[in-house]
Write a structure and sequence with these properties.
It is a single chain. The chain has 515 residues and is α+β, with helices and mostly antiparallel strands. It has a seven-stranded mixed β-sheet. A five-stranded mixed β-sheet has the order 20-19-21-22-23, with helices on both faces. The chain has a three-stranded antiparallel β-sheet with strand order 5-4-6. Helices cover 40% and strands 25% of the residues. It folds into three domains: 275 residues, BirA Bifunctional Protein, domain 2 (2-Layer Sandwich); 99 residues, no CATH class; 102 residues, Anticodon-binding domain (Rossmann fold), CATH 3.40.50. The protein starts with a helix and ends in a 5-residue tail after the last helix.
Length: 515
């Protein structure tokens, strides 16, 4: 656990030192759980968004985009259920005065049981080698079975209690498990109560006439209220999807773990409208498709797992999370939900406007069912950044800090480095930069010895360093250095664009998943 905490501290400090993420309003001592994306962070974030958008919208003929406003008519949130049901179970510790989400305390306890089971499984895997059968071991080893059974029992009980609104049993479960305040160890808890997560605001020139509004807690409702507008104007046929990226706001009880849980965050969502009765087929399709998209980035298959929901939201008939192994354990990265026809029917009821699809093949109207995929862009950023940050020991005994970002996402694709600041080398380097910047985000660096410049670009996550030396004057060649292997090749200046393109092209990366 201490090693994980150290890794997470390194992630946070590296993000600030190298211009990825700054605490918001830092000169005024910051604002809790609010962060600013710095010069490199904004590029990485943009590249992740574009990688998602190209895969989701551009590569699907039946999915289109939308950018709905953050402010919506307040009845939107009554219809969606957010006014009445968008709550988290809150619990306070009487001694420390700290506030927590009760469900997260229980889930963290269950995850510790899961980690104990994983350690037993890993030890057995090493002991038995290639002959090891994980599935058989999970169902036959008494200790592993006990850990997993207890974990599943705890989560099932919590899911039922939350679903029934039995908050007293949620507290009883915390007490029975002897869950303590993570910071102080105190077990002196208050009762559990519900806490609405929406931020309120007002629209109007005066307090007397102002309308009460909410900052949207999710981007999905902007898609639902525009369903018919998009369908008719785009002549869309079922099945089809509407995708959107944008800011959402939640007044989290406990906003923590850096950018993992913030009060202002960005979502990448797609709502896929299907015939009633076909939703489970598409639910399974999108589970597979979205996992393959994540795997295409090469962060390691072992870092992903599916988690089926024990407690379904009021609108869902099936739900699963793609969880990622963050520095603080497996947590939700993306949700795939079968939302039934709840949203369109609710907006139809509250608006008194018909929100149905006329199926020309069946010659009838019906309310489509919806399958949703929703991934947090900030969480996606953290998964990529944290997994890419490495400390490597080199052959000469020295170490280097390297940010092995997927090259398709790297903020800067190449750094152009003149060996010395004289003899015309900077002129050649700047000409190379002028040529490449039409196709790639590139940087120029002439300060310090070239070895130190290499190390800085490694830490920044730049896939290529291009060094201009005196031989470049004679034969128009340069040295190109590869970040991950540190291998150096002598290549013609005219070949640089093709070499870089082959490594950073979204097409080449997305073709791994057939998209």
């Amino acid at each position: 656990m201490a090693k994980q905490e150290d890794l997470f501290k390194n992630v946070v400090s590296h993000a600030k030192e190298y211009g990825y993420i700054f605490p918001s309003s830092e000169i005024y001592d910051g604002l809790s759980a609010v962060y600013d994306y710095a010069q490199n962070g904004v590029e990485l974030k943009k590249n992740i968004r574009e990688y998602w958008w190209k895969s989701m919208v551009q590569m699907h003929e039946n999915i289109v985009g939308l950018d709905a406003s953050i402010l919506m008519h307040p009845t939107t949130w009554k219809a969606s259920g957010h006014v009445d049901a968008f709550n988290d179970p809150l619990i306070d510790n009487k001694d420390s005065k700290k506030r927590y989400r009760a469900d997260v305390l229980i889930e963290d306890y269950a995850e510790k049981l899961n980690q104990k089971a994983e350690k037993e499984i890993e030890k057995a895997s090493v002991r038995f080698g290639e002959a090891f059968n994980r599935a058989e071991y999970e169902t036959t080893n008494p200790r592993v079975m006990e850990y997993l059974s207890k974990k599943n029992s705890i989560l099932a009980r919590m899911g039922k209690s939350l679903g029934d609104g039995d908050l007293a049993d949620v507290k009883a479960l915390i007490e029975e498990l002897e869950i303590a305040d993570p910071e102080t160890g105190s077990k002196n808890w208050t009762e559990v109560k519900q806490f609405n997560l929406m931020f309120g605001t007002k629209l109007g020139a005066s307090a007397d006439t102002a309308m009460d509004l909410y900052l949207r807690p999710e981007t999905a409702q902007g898609i639902f209220v525009n369903f018919l507008n998009v369908q008719k104007s785009g002549r869309m046929k079922i099945p089809f999807g509407i995708a959107q990226t944008g800011k959402a706001f939640r007044n989290e009880i406990v906003a923590r773990q850096f950018i993992f849980r913030m009060r202002e965050f960005e979502q990448m969502e797609m709502q896929f409208f299907v015939k009633p009765g076909e939703e489970m087929k598409w639910y399974e399709y999108w589970k597979t498709t979205r996992l393959n998209w994540h795997l295409s980035l090469g962060l390691g298959e072992k870092n992903y797992r599916f988690h089926d929901h024990d407690k379904l939201a009021h609108y869902a008939n099936a739900a699963a999370d793609i969880e990622f192994n963050f520095p603080f354990g497996f947590k939700e990265l993306e949700g795939i939900h079968s939302r039934t026809d709840f949203d369109l029917k609710a907006h139809e009821e509250f608006s008194n406007k018909k929100l149905q699809y006329f199926d020309t093949e069946e010659n009838k109207n019906y309310t489509p069912y919806v399958v949703e995929t929703s991934v947090g862009l900030d969480r996606m950023f953290l998964s990529v950044f944290a997994t890419s940050l490495k400390e490597e020991e080199l052959e000469d005994g020295s170490t280097r800090t390297v940010l092995k970002l997927p090259s398709v996402l790297a903020p800067t694709k190449a750094a152009i480095l003149p060996l010395v600041k004289k003899d015309g080398l900077p002129d050649i380097a700047k000409q190379i930069m002028a040529d490449l910047k039409w196709d790639f985000n590139v940087a120029y660096d002439e300060k310090d010895a070239v070895g130190r410049r290499y190390r800085r670009q490694d830490a920044l996550g730049t896939p290529f360093c291009i060094t201009v030396d005196h031989q470049s004057i004679e034969d128009q060649t340069v040295t190109i250095r590869h970040r991950d292997t540190m291998k150096q090749d002598r290549v013609a200046i005219t070949d640089l664009r093709e070499i870089i393109e082959s490594e950073v092209s979204m097409k080449n990366w997305l073709m791994k998943i057939g998209k």
